[in-house]
Fold each of these.
Amino acid sequence: MLAGCGKSESEKEYVLKGDYQTQNPLTVTAPILYTRQGPVTNPQVIQQFLARLNNTGFVFGTSQTLSSNSLLSFRDDKTASIVFQAPQGTAIEARLEEKTSDRIVLVGRDSIAYSQAPNPVLVVQNINQYKVAGRCRPVPPASGFISPCKGAVRYPINRTADGQLRIPLLSFLHKVTYPGGMASNSGINVWGVFNSAVLGQLGATDTLVVQTKELPLLKQ
């Protein structure tokens, strides 16, 4: 005799339709520092590290307000438009790439041109789980030239158990030291999801600080 296999409410198929406006306040988590030895959550240790790089308040913050205003419009559960700085901004047309009970992923219909420096740092290149889905023209690293790339931007959206939509935001600072110097890269409120797999790519001289936020989308 087979047991019942009905879906829970959160797993049932849902329809995406209508307009959603970004709405403050954000949900803000505390920054976490990672090294190859593991995570560090002590705020004092993290602030001392950031102060040495003069980045105490530049990349990471506790503000629950985001000044930019975005509008997300679902049309037929397969296509959508995204307007940054609404209502004056230009609409970005997107299609549905993935839909699960807890996440939606949109991908831009039009490809964008971007560049990639030679010998890219894997940690920074892969920190966003939903990075641009593109291809780059190979360029010999020794040439020092930048690789021209083309691809489509992906926009993940988190969905809570009660059906609320939230835009995941990612801020990070990565520092690596090497004989004779150091290099650092950072990103502020990048639309994306932290890819924890990059922690396995940290070397002995890598330090990574990550902060995640969520921006609610209110149905109009």
Amino acid sequence: MAIVYKLYNKANIFFMTSSSLYFYRQRKGSLIHTVSVKNLGASAHSHYEMEDFFEHEYPDLAHKFHQETIVSIVSYFHRLNLRDIKKEKKLYSYIKRYKDYAALNNRYKIEIFSLKYCYPIFKFIGYVGVLSRKFKQNEK
């Protein structure tokens, strides 16, 4: 995800085939299936960079990335303390200046607002999310 859109942007021609040229195999213990602060951070930065790229190269399409970028950054920030969040200058600045609330569901509107203006509520929402996921896992 982090580079494919840049490669497409540089291509002069495209070739389509019905043949499978790439075999993608997912393993149960692979990075794609591992939730960690490192992976969430990489995802948040990747989403941010992709949206920034489209904002400069294809502004009419950039809005299509807002929600995924917000979700990715918020998920990452829930695993950090406020000091570490503020160290993530690009991501934190993106959240602080974000204004396109119409594109988001109520959950993320509340999360962004609480992160901007009342960090303890943001952390509380994160704890509720952790408990909710644990309850869902126990039900299975």
Amino acid sequence: MYDMSRFSFIRRISMRNRLNIFNVLSFFLSALPFVIYLFMYPTMPRNVAIHYNFNDVADRFVDKSSPEVWLLCGISLISFIIMLMLQPYLSRQFKSEEGSAIMESLPGLFTLLITLVFSILGICFLLKA
């Protein structure tokens, strides 16, 4: 009979690669608002709306090079870094006894999902400016 414990390292390697792929995708998603901002910067008006009321009317304007604009672009990067720091905790929470690949990949998927949501928010802000 074959000793299956010799092949357990393959599962660990594939799991590590899967987490790395999710993290790389999340990083590129978090950088996307910055890239869009840099391309749009020359064509943006000098003052951009940074806050809207419930009637979708802009009620706060800042200069397009303001740190607040950079912060709105960087909120996806901040969420990516926070999720990256939470991944060890999430990995322990979702560790299953049978070693399900789906359960083991959830921390990376959560990182990707949270980063996607905040990237979309940053991109929507830029497109509305």
